[in-house]
Design a protein that fits this description.
Two copies of one chain form a homodimer. Chain A is α/β, with parallel strands linked by helices. The first copy, chain A, is built from ten helices and eight strands.
């Protein structure tokens, strides 16, 4: 079943990293002028800013701050470095609270010098250690399963099934999941696992972009929606069948797009959102 | 449980593509002189050769021809092109028979212009269409699940679980699976699925290399065993626990290694096989 057309921009959120050449102030102005309603803030854009004032500035532009990206990178063979990561995640939770956003997205990390099982256990341990902080700040932690091509050093959580297992094991209202089509589109279990995620109340965020054919870089060659082969409408349909009606977040890392005029790119994102998502 | 050390080269097979700059004649000489006992032949190396005589030449060098690489690339939106692929696979089966190898490895293919489910169905249909040819030639078809980063255009079969499902659905002594660590190492279900594959008599081939950190190219940056983060001994242990005692096949596509002296590379493969596999 195809989902309803996206006739307005009320659910459109864009990640600051998608238009990386812009400062957060410029992004806020341009998003607002184009009718974009949501923004997900990457931490690097907050550098040197007063975070509370930045949050206020974004809201004054009519933007909902959908989430803060990103915490995570928990696993490390060295216990001291794991503690450093947990401390940094506490700061990220504080930053999310100062921004008044209710979600911190976790790119969970992996340490290639140790077995994946160890990295996976350290991720769960770290998330459990952060629960009191998340609760007291009112910030939910969204585990984002990453594509298996990132299992070496970016995330040991590589399928939605695994992420569902972990969220269910942690079993806290402060932990849920972020579903990103780029990481998960290939998975034959995707429909089933999205349903499971929704039924357990764990579906916190939905990220879109496209998988280019061919893809020329493992990290920085994501496609604009419609440029690739991901069945975006089908996956959105599965997400919405769970009752999810939150923001649809455009998260694109692309050297090719970052080299172009960003205002034009923003216009293309908006057209692609209407046509292909 | 760690598997036994590989103290001799009796199970070492190398794919011709691993030492791509060499002709098959040169590879045969060098493998033989180095004590390598098995060779997997890529079809491109047979171009312009009499295949039966090439098979004889390889055996005269003391080499077992472990398999022919590769058939597959079945899915296509266009039925005529699917037929072309089936015809080409019939030729590949004939070539395998002429070489007197009993396995044809299938890189199953995917057509990014159609849904993955369609590609998956077309793969199974094609394999079923080839069963009489496989049987009459005495050649088993080994479905090789490929890493999810190849789901766009190289294979719609992306986990061992899926490949097991398909082999069990086809349910023929002429169809089994090739387990390649590069494609599967990240999968949290790998141990279970290798066991399942073995129990069903479907484990036909075992391919090794390594996953480099970082990997700089989606296709041609595979690592020599020991250069990356794949737990090779652990996975070999799982494979051998099923009773598998066939060849261990070194399959590396690497622009970096192909630019080096190939005799030196062969020596490094042999050391890495003893030390890291």
């Amino acid at each position: 079943m195809k989902p309803k057309e996206l006739t307005d921009l009320s659910q459109l959120c864009i990640h600051t990293i998608t238009l990386k050449p812009w400062s957060i102030e410029e992004a806020a102005k341009k998003f607002s002028a184009s009718g974009v309603k949501g923004i997900t803030v990457w931490r690097d854009t907050l550098e040197g800013r007063n975070i509370k004032q930045t949050g206020k500035m974004l809201r004054e532009h009519g933007l909902t701050i959908v989430s803060l990206c990103r915490g995570g990178f928990f696993p490390n063979k060295d216990a001291g470095k794991r503690q450093v990561a947990i401390d940094d995640n506490r700061r990220a939770i504080d930053e999310a609270a100062e921004l008044e956003t209710s979600i911190l997205v976790l790119v969970c990390g992996a340490d290639p010098s140790q077995p994946l099982e160890d990295s996976r256990k350290q991720i769960q341990d770290a998330i459990e250690a952060l629960l009191p902080d998340a609760e007291s700040a009112g910030v939910r932690l969204a585990i984002e399963p990453l594509h298996p091509m990132y299992a070496d050093s970016r995330s040991a959580i590589n399928t939605l099934s695994q992420a569902n297992d972990m969220a269910e094991a942690v079993h806290s209202p402060w932990v849920g999941l972020a579903v990103d089509v780029y990481h998960l589109w290939w998975d034959p279990c995707l429909e089933k696992e999205i349903k499971r995620c929704g039924e357990n109340g764990n579906l916190l965020a939905f990220h879109v972009c496209d998988w280019k054919v061919p893809t020329t870089d493992l990290l920085l060659d994501r496609g604009l929606m419609g440029e690739g082969c991901i069945p975006l409408k089908q996956i959105r349909g599965w997400v919405e069948e769970t009752g999810f009606n939150g923001f649809i977040e455009v998260e694109i890392f692309s050297n090719a797009w970052w080299q172009k005029d960003q205002s034009e790119f923003l216009n293309k994102i908006i057209s692609a959102y209407r046509e292909y998502v």
